[in-house]
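Example 3.2
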Amino acid sequence: MITIKDLRKAFGLSFVVLCAVYLGALFESFRLDQLELDPSAFDELAKALYEAQLAQAKMMNIIALGVIGAFAVVTLVFSVSKYVDDNRANMGILKAIGYTDFQISVKFVLFGLNALVGGLVGYLACLATVPAFYAEMNEGSGYPAVTFSFRLSVPLFYVVVPAVAFSLLGVLFAYRKLKRSPLDLIRGTERQGKTKKMKEGKTFLSTLRKTVLFRHGSLILFVGFAALCFGGTVQMSFSMDGFGVSPMFFWMMFLIAILLGVSVLYLAFSFLFQANKEYVSLLKAFGYSDAECVKALFGGYVSVSVIGFAVGTVYQIGIIYLIIELFKDVAELTYTFSVNGFFIALGLFVFTFAVIALYFFKKLKLLTLKKAW
């Protein structure tokens, strides 16, 4: 029922897991190797740096497992939900001929493969950058150099455990989504809402834009989440730079933030396009221009993206203050809102939004009734 092609559509999950595993495994490996040293023989300055680096490793693990991990869970939940919605009729038929909810939902264990692939690539990337990372951490430390030691516990915890966890989560969420009668699944009654008359003075396209927007409530949340992810993670890299971290850490965080933001935003647009291509093909058939179709399809999500970006700005500020509070006893961290970081993140977001919209605009120009239906 679920094919490799279906799993490829959820590639965003692999990217998010990749980023989380890369950061987490890299800093956890260094922390475990650092604990092999005996700090009692260090002078006061070296001991202070030793404690600060341990705190930094814990802080990066919180970001990797907590912040980015939460993004991964949301991406998985949305991907499973979207797959069930797109294939509800087939699943309704399976239930009608005697398959149980569990027998159908257990197939969603395959979504754990996305997490496994992302985790493996993330851990391999971690191993590839270990020499440069350890050299950066050891520079000017004032105590014996920390050397890398392979520990099986690290790939087990950061690669295998997430893959198993995401497999189980995919099954559980699919099971919850399938708790409907076969007839409801086939008809798609969960999506039905009250038909509203077009208000006087409202054009057909403006009414359609609202219909497209509110027809898929989960898409509103995911597009908003994509904007939150982009705005929050990019700005967080500038916030971390304000803690006095090295340029290597800044660029590491910045590039991961861009990768996260772009992949999740693209995934949101892809779902949006697939969910509404029937509407667009009908508009084109009735003579509406490509520009009018794009406005009807994506126009309603501009305000959703703005709100998501604003929430992401507040969200990353909250995370930074939480980190400061958690590590106030071991490191003195001060935070000042980065105005430059905000405008750079905003500019990158607008640019990325425009480029992805242009890409789907070109796809839309090739869309026909036959392809959509």
